[in-house]
Specification:
Layout: H1 22-29, H2 33-47, E1 52-62, H3 91-104, E2 108-113, H4 120-135, E3 139-143, H5 149-157, E4 162-164, H6 171-177, H7 183-195, E5 199-201, E6 204-206, H8 212-223, E7 231-236, H9 253-266, E8 271-274, H10 283-291, E9 296-298, H11 311-321, E10 324-325
Parallel strand pairs: 1-2, 1-9, 1-10, 2-3, 3-4, 4-5, 6-7, 7-8, 8-9
The chain binds S-adenosylmethionine, 6-(5-methyl-2-OXO-imidazolidin-4-yl)-hexanoic acid (DTB) and iron/sulfur cluster.
């Protein structure tokens, strides 16, 4: 990656800070929109080639029937959402999807399982999948729920690049969304993943009826982690019929863009992913997200169980905006 062409010689990238206070994060959200965008775009340029977007493809390797009660999630067994519980996919099926994702232009393949935490036998199978996907020359990511230290080390040993585990929201609002595991459980898993030497993918969801103060708390918590997550997915809630959040009040798209911008400023060297919710987002909103420093997307017509824009539509959008896939 060459930064020199678009970076003035004096704009040395400043080191990430881990001592962001809520007041400082609040002050960023309170900036006039154009000023916030300008600062975020500056930080983006100090740390990345701003015309590059990292492309990840998602696959649900184990769908539905989850014992947890995350109020946003179509895969919880506690809600009637029409998602039926399936068994863990077999290796060949997963590798066929990974090959297709690679052919479509994705550099990372993310496999998600609707588990509270993986069982040992399941982990053996996931390890085979990770090895197989890596052999195709793609980066690997899995999201399997809570992990023990041992499980994290096993995943590291089989070559896993990233583990996704989201904080989802602020510590204060968390209890309104999930009751079957605590915020501290999540922080513990994140620490085990970090300890094992796996890159951390950790972000959250907005548009769940949280307040501005919760978006502030979420970003302050993420930016306060001892090491920033390498990848920070910011999801706009996909409202799914049957979940308790099916009729949550939609978030103003500009508040979503602000959340991206503040994440970019507070975690300057992290890849910020414009994640779930793009299916219902205008091209203009997505363009503002890229201007605000988002530099990754989920690519392909499906997230885990809900729709995402088709490949053609996304390639046309990137093309129109003059953006290109990160190598
Ligand atoms: N079961 C594992 C877990 O929760 O850690 C892994 C899969 S879970 C589906 C991964 C993440 O997807 C959740 O933490 C949440 O942030 C996101 N997610 C789930 N449903 C969503 C929705 N309806 N809208 C936006 N994001 C969602
Ligand atoms: C993340 O932050 N978003 C992805 C991924 N990590 C696993 C999941 C989005 C799921 C959206 C709802 C669904 O398709 O089921
Ligand atoms: Fe289960 Fe993950 Fe959905 Fe929560 S987000 S219900 S843990 S699949």
């Amino acid at each position: 990656m060459s930064l020199s062409h678009h970076m003035p010689a004096f704009a040395a990238a400043s080191l990430p800070r881990h001592d962001w206070t809520r007041e400082e994060v609040r002050a960023l959200f309170a900036l006039p929109f154009p000023e916030l965008m300008f600062r975020a775009a500056l930080v983006h340029r100090e740390n990345f080639e701003p015309s590059e977007v990292q492309i990840s493809t998602l696959l649900s390797i184990k769908t539905g029937g989850c014992p947890e009660d995350c109020a946003y999630c179509p895969q919880s067994a506690k809600f009637e959402t029409g998602v039926k519980a399936e068994k863990l996919m077999d290796l060949d099926g997963v590798l066929a999807e990974a090959r297709a994702a690679k052919a479509g232009g994705a550099s990372r393949f993310c496999m998600g399982a609707a588990w509270r935490s993986p069982k040992e036998r399941d982990l053996d199978k996931v390890c085979e999948m990770v090895e197989g996907v890596k052999a195709l020359g793609m980066e690997t990511c899995v999201t399997l729920g809570m992990l023990t230290g041992d499980q994290a080390r096993r995943l590291k040993d089989c070559g896993l690049d990233y583990y996704n585990h989201n904080l989802d929201t602020s510590p204060e609002f968390y209890g309104e969304i999930i009751t079957t595991r605590t915020y501290q459980d999540r922080l513990d898993t994140l620490e085990r993943v970090r300890e094992a030497g796996i890159h951390v993918c950790c972000g959250g969801i907005v548009g769940m009826g949280e307040g501005l103060e919760d978006r502030i708390g979420m970003i302050a918590t993420l930016a306060g982690l001892p090491v920033h997550p390498e990848s920070v997915p910011i999801n706009m809630l996909v409202r799914v019929e049957g979940t308790p959040l099916a009729s949550a009040q939609a978030l103003d798209p500009l508040d979503f863009v602000r959340t991206i911008a503040v994440a970019r400023i507070c975690m300057p060297a992290s890849v910020v992913r414009l994640s779930a919710g793009r299916e219902d987002m205008s091209e203009e909103t997505q363009a503002l997200c890229f201007l605000a420093g988002a530099n990754s997307i989920f690519y392909g017509p499906k997230l885990l169980t809900t729709p995402n824009p088709g490949r053609d539509r996304d390639m046309a959008l990137l093309d129109k905006l003059g953006l290109r896939p990160m190598e």
